[in-house]
Design goal:
Layout lengths: L4 H13 L31 H26 L6 H6 L13 E10 L3 E12 L5 E9 L2 E12 L2 E13 L2 E11 L4 E6 L2 E6 L9 H11 L4 E8 L2 E17 L2 E10 L8 E7 L5 E8 L5 E11 L2
Antiparallel strand pairs: 1-2, 1-14, 2-3, 3-4, 4-5, 5-6, 6-7, 7-8, 9-10, 10-11, 11-12, 12-13, 13-14
């Protein structure tokens, strides 16, 4: 990712500063007892014989009538039990976006100290869409990056992505990606490479996936995977929550959710991020270590989050 010293620092800023689910049955009716014909009692018959026959008939009739009603009531299924088993799971609770402005500083440790700053802005547009803006100011280059998108069903739906890097003794780089969801394609160019790709479901741009990551943490997810447009193809980026830590930052002492980018065991690169739930899951710190041991660290300076 970081191929040279200036680009390493800038891409570190880009990567980090823009972050952000008995069927019923009735008892068979009992047969009614046959009536017992009356007979003239013999003189030797017991006085209670006739009443006993009548009582037996009445008792039998009553006994067969009552059970036939009660089991039918008891065997009724629990309300909506069948519907519950076959119904689709309810839709996820809506997770709102919050307009905000956050400022960061970054430091590169590669034998020489290099510093820069960046501003990340999230704004709601008059038509109900959103704009995510990212501006970097450093001694070696300036970067302007933006994403116009829809927020729909807790997902970032990219519409257009723009990127421009320029600076002293640095070749200008631009990216322009347009997402046509009606046609199912993303087209444009990526630093000189033509892009014309079929859109898989949930595809994201290089800036929007960072906002999606933050929103998925707000939704309680602990492992996330995204398909991100990168250099004329799609990369699979996987992230996982690995714990919590207490940090002292410029916005105060905070408890942060610690996240890592999942890579193959043989990959020596490491990316760690800290998000603060009490600050609307604001990214407050990022550390990235490259294969050669170079270390990049980003920290929040200040943030304004709309109510």
């Amino acid at each position: 990712m970081f191929r040279d010293f200036p680009r390493a620092f800038l891409q570190c800023l880009i990567l980090t500063l823009t972050l952000t689910a008995a069927s019923a049955h009735a008892g068979a009716p009992q047969p009614q007892p046959e009536s017992v014909p009356e007979s003239v009692p013999e003189p030797s018959a017991e006085p209670s014989a006739e009443p006993s026959a009548e009582g037996s008939a009445e008792s039998s009739a009553e006994g067969s009538a009552e059970p036939s009603a009660e089991p039918a009531a008891e065997s009724q299924p629990a309300p909506d039990s069948a519907d519950t088993d076959s119904a689709e799971p309810p839709p996820p609770e809506p997770i709102s976006l919050t307009p905000m402005v956050a400022r960061y500083s970054a430091a590169l440790d590669k034998g020489v100290a290099l510093k820069g700053s960046a501003v990340r802005t999230l704004k709601l547009q008059p038509d109900g869409t959103w704009m995510l803006q990212f501006d970097v100011d450093s001694l070696i280059a300036d970067i302007t990056e933006s994403l116009h998108f829809r927020w729909q069903d807790n997902n970032v739906i990219p519409l257009s992505y723009r990127y421009r890097l320029s600076g002293f003794m640095i070749r200008e780089r631009t990216r322009q990606l347009d997402y046509d969801w009606d046609r199912g394609v993303v087209s444009g160019h990526y630093e000189g490479r033509s892009v014309n790709l079929e859109l898989p479901p949930g595809a994201l741009d290089p800036l929007g996936y960072q906002l999606q990551l933050r929103q998925d943490l707000k939704a309680g997810k602990t492992q996330m995977e995204y398909q991100v447009t990168e250099k004329g193809t799609f990369d699979q980026d996987v992230f996982a929550v690995i714990g919590e830590e207490t940090l002292d930052t410029r916005v105060g002492r905070v408890t942060a959710v610690k996240l890592e980018k999942v890579r193959a065991p043989a990959n020596k690169r490491e990316t760690l991020m800290w998000f603060v739930p009490e600050l609307d899951y604001l990214l407050v710190k990022l550390v990235q270590v490259e294969k050669d041991g170079s270390r990049y660290e980003i920290n929040v300076d200040e943030a304004v989050i709309a109510d």
